[in-house]
Amino acid sequence: MKEDNSHYIIEGGEEGKARLNVLSDALFSYTKTLLEKLGLKENMYFLDNGCGGGNVALMVKKMVDKNGKVIGIDFDESIIDLCKQDAVKQQIFNVSFNTQTAYELNYLNEFDISYARFLLSHLNNPKLALEKMVEATKPNGIVVIEDLQFSGHFCYPTNEAFTTYMQLYSKAIELNGGNAEIGPSLIELFKEVGLTNIQFEIIQPVFTKGTGKWMAYLTLEKIKQKLIAASLIELEAINTLLQQLKQFTEDENTLMSLPRMFRVWGTKVNS
């Protein structure tokens, strides 16, 4: 089954990667701490499924050292090319970035940890993608998913532009076959694909300033053309919306969260 690239509503390429870098910076310590807690160490093999800007894969390569193996995959060839360039710039070697869809994983019992962040919520068949990740994982290995419950996204004080952004994002995801509310259902999905020792936690960074606070604005900016193409909003209206959201974000007396994030992990049965 081919993954329809149109199901990913956020603009890719160099500008899209810049947004992903901001997101990864905001979540860096959270993801690193989780992977350390799950036992990531030297010599391990790690899969980053839907690797986006490659930030997690590059971070993990430093953690597993020269004898470890890290593979990042993403359907966006332009993003993958940029990831490869980043690896060279940072002099991180023995990390592979491949253009591939989540449904085309063809690894078998290869990785100690298989990981995906903000991938399944964009897919019309997240169960199949998760099954492919389970197949790729070694017996007794761990599958880790970080994904959102978008309705948990908030700002303070309430802001009409932010509320409109949330409605537009959720509708666009739905129209493209995804599920912006997938977070709470991940636990049941893990059970359905046969994972055991399932555990989860919820995190939600909140900002008064800094790059993390700009994620809502940057995301709206990068889904602008998709929203217009889907007739969800007109050009003049979204430009006004972006300006209003920018003004709110710039105000250090306001709060802006990232979407509520479910982090779920489970162990592959030793068959």
What features would you highlight for this structure?
3-stranded antiparallel β-sheet, alpha/beta, 271 residues, Rossmann fold, 7-stranded mixed β-sheet, globular, 42% helix, 22% strand
Characterise the protein shown here.
It is a single chain. Helix 3 links the parallel strand 2 and strand 3 (95-99). Mean pLDDT is 92; it is low at 1-6. This protein is α/β, with parallel strands linked by helices and 271 residues long. It contains eight helices and ten strands. Helix 1 packs across helix 3 (77-89), helix 1 (13-37) packs across helix 7 (215-229) and helix 5 (160-175) packs across helix 8 (235-250). The longest helix is centred in the first third of the chain and has 25 residues, at 13-37. It has a seven-stranded mixed β-sheet with strand order 3-2-1-4-5-10-7, sandwiched between helices. The protein has a three-stranded antiparallel β-sheet with strand order 6-9-8, with no helix packed on it. It has a domain at 5-150 and 177-205 and 260-267: Vaccinia Virus protein VP39 (Rossmann fold), CATH 3.40.50. The protein has helices at 13-37, 55-64, 77-89, 126-136, 160-175, 186-192, 215-229, 235-250, and strands spanning 45-49, 69-74, 95-99, 111-117, 137-149, 155-156, 196-203, 206-207, 255-257, 260-267.
